[in-house]
Amino acid sequence: MEFSKRILKIKPSPTIAVTSMANSLKSQGVDIIGFGAGEPDFDTPKNIRTAAINAIESGKTRYTPSGGIPELKNAVVKKFKRDNNLEYDQSEVIINCGGKHSFYNLMQVLIDEGDEVIIQAPYWVSYPDIVLLAGGKPVIINTESDTGFKITPKQIAENITKKTKAIIINSPSNPTGTAYSMDELSKIAEVIENTDIIPISDDIYEAITFDGFKFHNIANVSDAMKKKTIIINGVSKTYAMTGWRIGYIAGNRDIVNKIDILQGQSTSNPTTISQWAAVEALTGDQSVLSEMMIAFHRRRKFVVDELNSIPGISCYNPEGAFYAFPRVSEIYKFKKWNSIAEKYKDPYKSSSLCAYFMEEARTAVVPGIAFGNDNYFRMSFATSDENLKEGLNRIRDAVEKLI
Predict the structure, then answer these.
(1) Burial of 144 from C-beta contacts in 10 A (0-12 / 13-18 / 19+)
(2) Closest C-alpha to 205, from 231, 160, 170
(3) Distance between CA 204 and CA 242 in Å, rounded?
(4) Hey, what long-range contacts does 77-84 have (CB within 8 A, 24 or more apart)?
């Protein structure tokens, strides 16, 4: 069987693969604690579930416009005004089948063969592959924990070429949790404001920030930047609605119109019932957010403190999202590391380490190489306190066996 060149360019999602493996082992009765999935462990709030049930019972189950129902577009417009002080018209908004679908569609309408997209590493696993699938070239800028996992204006300027089409800013970030201040965003804006480069602001973790961090995106810098910026967001992380598959895009109406055409010839409308649930999520009681954040605050502190107390591990304290991204390169210097590398025979050390954790510690975490840096792994702390305590004890024991 011969496959298309474009599908051969990309690889399976490592985060989905790890979660699937953990679930498979659990189904076989193996006691696995999974830290791979990027989703809150809370139930979707009751008022949102009720809105979906009401939509079903009132017959709101048929096709909608491919770009989403007017009621949800209006809710998104109001959300941007309420939360971000940004004004959009409904013609500048489109509803998609989750944030990943939003980014996929955006790349399909923007990128031609050879166009370059600047991506900060560590990056969300799907950015480079979706760019490749559109015929583009991911231009990776590496960052490390000792610089807060942030790209500098100088690094951006050094990587701009005549083919640069866009730059992705994911703040707070998956996998590192780093987040950009308004001042930092303003300095990035200075580099690209007089170019044709499109800033893509992935704000999916906007509502999950710590220690009083104030969220902004680059569209807040100036009217000129707002006109250039495309914002991607959704209800998955904020409202514990990962399976409902509702994302959205706001920005230039010509780009939005082209995405609408693409969507009309591919998926058609996002699930009608989910759209009505998302209307309630965005316009209904928002107190559920503070309740979830209390748990995320507590868990973040526990996880970061515990990881930093394990030999060979150091962990950056994230400003947002619900991931820890600990550095583990010191473990690769431990006496018994070579035996692990030899056993798993993987070219990437983080993959071998995570395989070791799966087997020895019965914990599932994602190798850092999946996000562009082999010296780390990612663990989600969007799970119960009990799982976090037990899982980190298992990781500690497994690491200490390598010393």
Answers:
(1) middle
(2) 170
(3) 11
(4) 78/282, 78/283, 79/282, 80/231, 80/250, 83/206, 84/216, 84/217, 84/219, 84/220
267 contacts 72 by C-beta, under 8 angstroms: no
Lowest-pLDDT choice from 28-32, 122-126, 237-241, 347-351: 28-32
The C-alpha atoms of residue 227 and residue 36 are separated, in whole angstroms, by: 36
- Banded model confidence at residue 19, pLDDT cuts 50, 70, 90: low
Residue with tokens 């010393």: 403
Distance between CA atoms of 40 and 244, rounded to whole angstroms?
A: 13
Confidence at residue 32, expressed as pLDDT on a 0 to 100 scale: 87
Does residue 280 carry a pLDDT above 90? yes
Q: What is the pLDDT of residue 18?
A: 64
CA 383 to chain centre: 17
In sequence order, the 6+-apart residues with CB closer than 8 A to the CB of 389 are 302
Please tell me the distance from the alpha carbon of residue 88 to that of residue 76, in angstroms, as a whole number.
Answer: 9
Is 300 within 8 Å of 210 (Cβ atoms)? yes
- Sequence-ordered alpha helix ranges (H) in 68-174: 70-84, 99-110, 126-133, 153-159
pLDDT for position 16: 65
Residue 94 tokens read as 């489109």
Give, for 20, the enclosing helix (H) or strand (E).
helix 14-27
Q: What is the pLDDT of residue 39?
A: 87
First to last CA, the chain: 47
Contact in structure between 256 and 248 (CB atoms under 8 Å):
no
Q: What is the pTM of this model?
A: 0.95
pLDDT by residue (tens digit) across 218-250? 999 999 999 999 999 999 999 999 999 999 999
- The token duo for 303 is 């996880």
Nearest to 279 by CA among 36, 106, 55: 55
Ordered DSSP codes for 22-74: HHHHHHTT---EE----S-SSPPPHHHHHHHHHHHHTT--S---TT--HHHHH
Answer whether the bond into residue 172 is a cis peptide, omega within 30°.
Answer: yes
Helices 287-308 and 385-400, axial angle in degrees (round to 10) = 20
Which tokens in the block code for residue 309? 């107390």
